[in-house]
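Data deposition worksheet. Section B asks for the primary sequence of the deposited chain exactly as it was used as input, without tags or linkers unless they were present during the calculation. Section C holds the resulting structure in token form. Section D is free text for depositor observations; keep each observation to a single sentence. Incomplete worksheets are returned to the depositor.
Section A, Depositor: J.P.
Section B:
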Amino acid sequence: MNLKSIHNVYFIGIGGIGMSALARYFVADTKHVGGYDRTQTEITDSLEEIGVNIHFEDDIKIVDSNFLNPKHTLIVYTPAIPETHSELQFFKSCGFNVLKRSEVLGLITENSICLAVAGTHGKTTTTSILGHLLKECNVEMTAFLGGISENYNSNLIQNGSKIFVVEADEFDRSFLTLSPDFACITSMDADHLDIYGEKDALVNSFKAFTKKLKPQGKLLIKKGLPLKGITYAVDENADYTATNIKIENGAYVFDIKTPKEIIKNVLLNLPGRHNLSNALIALAMAVELGCAPYSLVSALASYKGVKRRFTYQIKTSNFVYIDDYAHHPEEINAVFQAVTEMYPDKQKMVVFQPHLYSRTRDFVDDFAKSLARFDDIRLLDIYPARELPISGITSKWLLDKIDNPNKRLITKAEIVSEIQNSTSQIVLTLGAGDIGEEVKHIKEQLSIAS
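Section C:
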């Protein structure tokens, strides 16, 4: 399919973080862009501000007539949209080009140099660091992000189109539509078992992804994964190693050993060993691409992070409020490690919204152990996203498994009062559902109260 012949791009599920990045890309490419989403959000508002026509009812009658010409219109949809969606059914039955988001990414990147970031955790932060590094080094590139970069207030970084940086998403095996020149794999922990059934199937999918590399392509992997490639690790021997790690003024200062040299005094203004690992692999990919190491060090020092990835909402001498997208037990463990390293002697409260019935069911014991480490625990109801309820799988079921007496099930309306009534000096809101929509309100109310 030739994207140059396409004049109109219509998105079903345009408010998704990956979908909206593609929408921005096509707007910049002077296409006529529009779409549907179930809910109005800050993301849909920001798209409308740049001229994207969006509606919030599943009704083909209100779709702009410009998008009803099959010859010049591309329809892009997310796997989160059910097959019963009437607009999706209409376009599929009427001869339109209808592609998943991942297939469109494959088309955009197939004739360019593609750097793909894969892994069950760390994709978004790693991709945004890599995009920022290349932009600061004036590489002609475009990066599609799965989050909003604090540096650019966008999920799209553009500085040309010779090179593309993308997240290689394992959900629905989407990453198998890519053919990257450089790829990294940050982790292969069990997840998306509603798709894969068991961890071995997930691992096999990652192995299949490695075979999608172009001839002479380079694969970088976290040391310890059952794959062959250029390795990276924090504080252990690998091809790329972060070593001599110190914390100074709330930031990491460390050295990097590459296959050719040692780079001294690298600064990263993000907490958590998981972010140290993400920064290391992003820098390693940029070095393998051919960027000068010391230019990359300067660029990394100016990196500010991704919204909802250990984002400080309030930070004073006696109270800290942090928001994070963590929705898997290993991600919650990483957040706990980071906050404990930064605030070892402070009492910590977590407000967590489980994401998906199936994920809660598959990892309930791991969730219980991760959450029990906090001093004070509050759970919201499970956010269903694309799923229907599963009998017996509730937040109350998870709550009962948490071995900590300081726990309660609450509603979103109770979050602020629960925080205000807690003695914890550090508060975290975690989850990938609509808890993110509550953060602004929580911050405002806590700021007023203080």
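Section D:
DSSP finds 15 helices and 21 strands in the chain.
Residues 273-289 form the longest helix (17 residues).
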